[in-house]
Specification:
The chain is of the alpha+beta class and about 500 residues long. The structure holds iron/sulfur cluster (2 copies). One iron/sulfur cluster binds near residues 451 and 479.
Length: about 500
Amino acid sequence: MARLHEHQGKTILAAAGIRVPRGGLASTAEEARQQAAALGGVAVVKAQVWVTSRAAQKLIHFVKTADEAGDAARMLIGQQVGHFPIESVLVEEQIAIEREFYVGLIVDDRLRRPVVIVSSVGGSGIEEIALAHPDQVAQFAPDVRTGLRDFEARDLLRRVGVRGKLLLSFSEMLVKFYAAARNYDARSAEINPLVLTADGQLMALDCRFTIDDYAVFRHPELGIEIAREMDRPPTALERIAWQVEKDDYRGTFYFLQLETTFEAADRVVGFHGNGGGGSMMNMDTLLAQGFRIANFVDTSGNPPASKVYRAARIILAQPRVDAYFMGGSGVASQEQFHSARGLVKAFMDAQLNVPAVIRIGGNGEEQAIDILQRANGSFPAPLEAYGRDATPEFCVNRLVEMVEAYTPAVVTPREMPPAAEPYTFETVTHGTITFDYAVCRDCETKACIESCAPQILSLEGDVPVLNITREQAKRGACIECLACEVECHFRGKGGGVIQLPIPGLDA
Ligand code: SF4
Ligand code: SF4
């Protein structure tokens, strides 16, 4: 889920007609000083950072003059909070508060509906409040076809004791809040606190929105760079990985760098998960064995081999990786031989120089293991592949032994000589497949032909040709399974080569 900053959420609320404090964003101390001056000097300066408990962490300052606002901003901007540098502050008027409420919305996967939650006693620790004051917290799941209707909002608020004139203004505000969350495809949204001011107005003092990853493209105005929930700006490799995911809708590729600085004595593993919960179990086992995990990657949902290839290349491009481990669900339904071919090509192209253990259970497991085992000798480091019957503990122990026994070689990435007689076509992710007819003519196995579907590739005389048009191949009829190149490498004469660009990686 992509998270919005407080100031972005307030822009959404204000546009929906919900009152927010006067003020504005500042990215320098001078801008903050000017914002506060426009408010008469008395203001609150709030760091725009994705952490909770900002007040307790002294990331919110109440100031009495414009100069104090400038000083507070100078102290906050540039400060590192966890992984996250503070880049801006929100300077707002101070509000005299009469009473605090909470309103929230969350998409409930079980109900398959959004659920609206209200509390008449504020919302810090809403779960605990709900337990301690069940009569003051209530929720309602509106029908998504109608949205939250006036009478439903009023009924919900009556359940937490809101009455009289406030009931009317509050229910009106709640309907607007629901509509704003719906319009922005929020997975969750909350106003906390929603306050009743001393002059009787409802006002959103703080808010939080997360947007559904799959709907981010509908909201370019939000400027979300990567449609993932992150607590810091993305790294260069995360940006590259996101581009891969964004440009290829087939399957899922998730990449997150967990650590980038290590001690010489650390044993650092590049982690490649292939199926959610199982991945966590494998990571726990790596940690228990003393590995430090450089990254989390998940390729699942039946990704093509080309996507797994790019994932593996990105894992190996991290500044420090001493070992490679793939592990996930032992009974994944995706066709694991695609993942195996993606890994083999990545390891060949990068000339794998760290031991790798691949635990690849599920559909097509035996074929996947066979492909991986045959790849040994195609790169300097050893690779072992196991299926569902091998426990994560066993696989991780093997990796430890392999790392201890391996001395990294001096390697250069694989470079294929230019084809003397190229026959070339493009693939759906801007890849290029080239058969060098000068080599193919003398190849006895024609392994590329039997590894591909006959309607796509066939023999014409002694050489492979497309059975479809180049345009069809480029539109996705060639599924980038990489089988023609991998099998050519294993059994042919090396005449088939696939180039799969990863924009930004080489730079
Ligand atoms: S297996 Fe390789 S060398 Fe043989 S025909 Fe196919 S692409 Fe050419
Ligand atoms: S040509 Fe055939 S074997 Fe080669 S990548 Fe495309 S679909 Fe796979």
